[in-house]
Fold:
Amino acid sequence: MKVDVLLGLQWGDEGKGKIVDVLTPRYDIIARFQGGPNAGHTLEIKGDKHVLHTIPSGIFHPEKTNVIGNGVIIDPLSLKGELERLRAKGVAPEKNLIVSKKSHLILPTHRLLDATYEASKGDAKIGSTLKGIGPTYTDKTARNGLRVTDILSDDFRNRYDSLKKQHLDIMDSYGFDYKSYELDGMSFDHYEQMWLDAANEIKELKVMSTENFIDRQLREGKSILAEGAQGTLLDIEFGSYPFVTSSNTITAGVCSGLGVAPSKIGRVFGIVKAYCTRVGSGPFPTELHDNDGQKLRDEGNEYGATTGRPRRCGWLDINALNYSIMLNGVTDLVMTKADVLSAFDEIKVCDRYQEKDGEITQEFDIEKSGLEPLFKTLKGWKTNLDDKTKASEFPEALNDYLKYIEENSGVPVSILSVGADRDKTIVLRDF
Ligand code: GDP
Ligand code: IMO
Ligand code: MG
Structure:
């Protein structure tokens, strides 16, 4: 068996959580391979909304196994909160959740370092979620980090104190007064005690070498879906550096983040919102600062699932989409939030850019400055899609929009999402 992959093709928040939940019945195992609680994956099941941060989006299916892979970084206190919120909804997450012992830990001082670095950057700040992502991956690559396996050691407290001291020394050098900084509304000392208690509770979960578990499952013929976080344009290598996250959000990240060989990758579902959004700083060629941008935000309820920040909105960028398809080897597109575009008379898609010297190009190069997006205008459908179940029932303009994307990307749109709820999903092609 191979590992199928589902990931975001834009700047995150494409609706990955919803689609993973919808596809979970087809798989035995759902596995997160990168990122941490900077992710906010929303699931709506019969009107009940739930946001997941570190736990895979298959958790609402009790007979499926959910894996937090080695490439994911874990904040034990955030994870504990997630587990408790799930239990309050009648889910028993500890029964079908497996955690890699190689996953790195986000310490309270990693979150403080995130705040220190962002404050020091002033106007050039990344717009991080301040969950400690950058500093934790930094310690990982510097071979300095603490992992889940360290919690199991008798020496854990010493290792924790030693890394904390290094962090406090860095903050001192920046003049950052950590004692007066609150974490989730708590003093540092209070938060730290809660974090240490939560770290201890990770011992009660199923902790193992998940790469070996996954290999065994594949040999037994089990099917696996790898769930991405963030989006391709936030990838540490290919995103709009430095306005990126600190992990590989692309298909290649599945190999290192779960211990899966490249030859074991199967289908790649690329999730694309029917328009574009971005939270945080950094270039966004099709961003709209006008009424249409505000309308997309209002109709799409574009406010961050993790931080509540308003998302920047703009039209779809077909060249950026093709760049993401290229990097990930996408076999199937999944378009979400098509219903949001029902409010528009006309829909635009950026199909070319004009360079500073007047040259026209279709090559997406986010680091080139002064690219002017040029748009193709398509007809809107102005039709409520709530009761639609198949393409033959769609308004012609919606089918034209899908056809335009398929023809210009060379990849089929296999699933269309027309609402936040699980039920509002239309499978257009078999896969
Ligand atoms: P993720 O991070 O990729 O999982 O996406 P988020 O959960 O951060 O953001 C997607 C938002 O859009 C959530 O509020 C979802 O409930 C919602 N959503 C997902 N698919 C659709 C859709 O097809 N239509 C509408 N209107 N909302 C959707
Ligand atoms: P999901 O999985 C959207 C953005 C932040 C910031 C940049 C770096 O829900 O799609 P970080 O906290 O990683 O240091 O922030 O990346 N960002 C996201 N934007 N969705 C996400 O996750 C994101 N995770 C990080 O806003 O611009
Ligand atoms: Mg999100």
